[in-house]
Amino acid sequence: SVPHLEVMDQSPTCLYIQMWDAEMGYRADSWKPRETVLFIADVKLNWNDFKKCMTGTVTARTIITENPDIADAEDLREHARTAPTVPSAILDQLAINFPEPSAINSVMSCQSVWSRATNAESAESFTALVFAAVTELDLDGQMSHTLSKCQHCQQTVDDTVGLCMNSECLVSSGVERPLSQRAYDLRVTLADHTGSLPGCRLTSPAAAQALNCSPEDFDCLSLDAKTTLKWKLLLRRCAARLVVLPATRDRNSPLISVLALDKVALPDYAARTPMY
């Protein structure tokens, strides 16, 4: 098989690079994930139908410099040490770093979002403003709807030991002390007249704002109070601002995160909901 690299910078996507050169493949054996910084020049780029993205190929003209002694390289190394690599964590990071959800103004129907997310020619993330009703929201079931997250890597913390279980986190290596915070872990289904978007991840800030209840306060509620809280949002018409990671060959289902969920009046809902 042809050796390949998966390289990243400070953008949310990665680049796959194939190395046909045996000597280059030998050099790559000494490169350390999240530690080695590469300056790559003259890599050949091609569209990969299987991965649905651009991929690179090392050629005779390609020059790769390992760990260049420049400030940008050190900044990138620091970023790589804690940057998420799992798709769900990448989506969470996109949501956290999104400057202002109100800037999402590209109105789409549920059908249009789902079609683009499942049949996309590109794996690049996109945003959408959807006017829909919340048709599924389980706040009073048997499952837990809050969890503890590591403040360094945003991964789940095991409450029984109080430590981040992410082996790549700086907490696990002893570089940083453990810090965690409570967060919502909610899924909702959004639906309009064109279709539905199942399993949307409602971000913790969006959930806290939409429910007017912090995760810490939610943990203290009785079952009846959680049921009452659920019906304040369930079946209500809302404006949902989304960030979407389309499905890929490696991930059959798209990942959809709700950055903001605001109830809207019927006239505004009717005027802004697209036909298709």
Describe the protein:
This protein has 276 residues and is of the alpha+beta class. The chain folds into 2 domains: 4-82, OB fold (Dihydrolipoamide Acetyltransferase, E2P) (Beta Barrel); 87-145 and 185-272, Nucleic acid-binding proteins (OB fold (Dihydrolipoamide Acetyltransferase, E2P), Beta Barrel), CATH 2.40.50.140. The protein has 8 helices and 15 strands. It has helices at 22-28, 71-82, 87-97, 110-118, 204-211, 215-219, 223-230, 266-272, and strands spanning 4-8, 14-19, 38-41, 44-48, 53-58, 63-66, 126-137, 146-150, 157-158, 163-164, 180-184, 186-192, 195-202, 237-245, 255-263. Strands 7-12-13-15-14 form a 5-stranded mixed β-barrel, surrounded by 4 helices. It has a 4-stranded mixed β-sheet with strand order 1-2-5-4. The chain has a two-stranded antiparallel sheet with strand order 3-6. Strand 1 and strand 2 form a beta hairpin. The radius of gyration is 22 Å and the shape is globular.
Short key terms for the protein model shown above:
276 residues; alpha+beta; OB fold (Dihydrolipoamide Acetyltransferase, E2P); 2 domains; 5-stranded mixed β-barrel; 4-stranded mixed sheet; Replication factor A C-terminal domain-containing protein; MEIOB
